[in-house]
Task: structure prediction
Amino acid sequence: MKIKSSNIGYPRIGENREWKKLLELFWTEQVSEGQFEKEMEHIRLSHLKKQKEKGIDLIPIGDFSYYDHVLDTAAMFGLIPERFKTEEKGLTLQTYFEIARGSKGKIASEMTKWFNTNYHYIVPELKNAQPNLGKNRLLELYLEAKQKLGIEGKPVILGPISLLSLSKGYDKQRRAELLNSLIPLYIDVFKQLKEAGAEWIQVDEPILVKNVDKEIIDEFKKVYAAFNEGVPEVNVILQTYFESLEFYQEIIELPVQGIGLDFVHDAGRNLENLKEHGFPSDKVLFAGVIDGRNIWKSHLTKKLTAVYELTRFIDKDRLIIQPSCSLLHVPVTVKSEQQLDTQIKKALSFADEKLEEVVLLTKVANHDGSVQELEVHDQAIVELTNSSHRNVKTVQEAINNIGNYSSERIDVIKRKEVQAERFDLPILPTTTIGSFPQTKEVRKERLKWRKGELTAHQYEEYIKAEIKKWIDIQEEIGLDVLVHGEFERTDMVEFFGEKMEGIAITKFGWVQSYGSRCVKPPVIFGDVYCKETMTVKETVYAQSLTAKPVKGMLTGPVTIINWSFVRDDIDRTDVLNQIALAIRSEVEALEASGIKMIQVDEAALREGLPLKEEKTEAYLNAAVYAFKLATSSVEADTQIHTHMCYSNFDDIIHAIDALDADVISIETSRSHGELIASFEQHHYNKGIGLGVYDIHSPRVPSLEEISQNIKRALEVLDYRAFWVNPDCGLKTRGETETIAALKIMVEAAHQYRERLSTIETV
Result:
């Protein structure tokens, strides 16, 4: 009897982001569709080949995507928004990308965070949807792997209940109709895969780890009974991840042949349930024991003990070892990181290394290897834990005495009065979120500086020229509050990671955020603190060029920790507060330098929300405290702004209020202003900007479109508190479209300002 190994999913982007580069070449019509398809096939097959060579027994097929796996599933079942439907039979590649990115006259589908990760999925729109199975994408990919690589892969598909739960545009009755329509389509897919030779089919149902109600469980019983009856000979894996399984006893009794559980992020509940309630003798357990979301090496000696614990309840031939979730959330390989500190690098494990950990652990668990191999593997983590990086006395003393730092400001009403006097802004003040286009020229000059082809002085002068250029542009457009543009920054978290002690920046540690947008999460490996200021020089220079206020731009502690790979040897809240104290010192330095508007972005506040409701309050309390710790030492006439990205905010409005920021801005345009309804139920007495146009689509909004967004907001919000701004930073947009869009935005604000001024006069 042997334990086997499996993988749930693999990064799409490639070791050198070749996937991203190919996508962008295709979007800019620099490669033909035929060439695009051919090169994508090469990338896809190379990923499968690598997993085979590493010794993974069950290799996922169909996790590869041209944009997003949720969009892929919706597209396969004909769930196409009405505005994108054409006369052509089937879904064209052009339409596929239009759904995700938008096009002239067609707003892209909404995107939002994939559970509590920084990956964004395209939200299926099911209004008037009539599910149908067009091309069986999974069958094509399965046969491709089988015929070209000899891989008997494990097809992967998002399950119907999770698909519906992650979609929008239907009511309870319509949900039942849609589910009934989807069941036979899934069965058709499974039948075709089984006939082609597929032994296992992985059906991802991550919705099961949320606080689902009994009605959802009844849906699972109905759907999976239908699957079992419709294709009784197929082996279905009901795969969950990111948390512990809800309704454990009911789910393990479903008529499926395998169940995948996360034993890393479940706080021990999956194991407790398994011990208390057992595990069916006719099912295979796909045990996620290697962390698929963080980048530290696993303590494999401890993992071996955990595996042996599982074998007390499950026979070895019914146990399969795998990562806790898809490796989509980690970079591809550590081997490319030649510039990292050796001690840090030795302790890292990216996707390829995690597969090696899975295989090594499986081998030793089968007594085909020695425990000494695991001990050698674990040594790097032990050495880092004992190093000076993780034992900085001043930082640890600050955390132990955290109560000595203020975290409250004077009443917001009093702050409003002194800030109104200081800034004297018009009603509906206009601003942007922070960044301006990072052109090829900007990136080229930065690369030359990093290579030593430009001196630090030459690079600084180039950045100053860009700042001046965009201060002038903002003045010409007529914006009321300006920004310096962030031309010296790569990424809003990476930049600060480079400036802080205890945080490392990789060179090739890219992960997909949305579409071709990749980010390099910093690696928080030690105690965090600052030796010097990080943003003062550029901000003060920008302010010297204009009489209008220039916002200092910082990234908040919650976003830094949520968009980083975080050390796992101490409590996460302690790491959060270390970062908050580092940001606090920068806020104080900006204020001391005359910068009286300071934006501390918490773009990722909501995405860090736990998947279990019982953990929510503790998370939000810690997040609010960290933000206030970072921002509460300033004077009353210093205005604190913050910004938040796409999310559903209804359930955390109270926490947003508790941040006590003077002005918040929130992305709303792609969700068509639905967030505004939240404020109909909640009185918000601070400044607020609800993004009036979507910057993620390569299009210039119309005056009517922006005006409608302003109009809808003012139906709910006090116009004296409302700010007009795009819904996110403009770094990824082109210069021409950015200027054109901002001019329209300012015009719309001025039109409304005139109307409101008339009302005030009357």
User: Anything to note?
Assistant: The domain at 396-400+427-646+654-761 is CATH 3.20.20.210 (TIM Barrel). The longest strand covers residues 284-290.
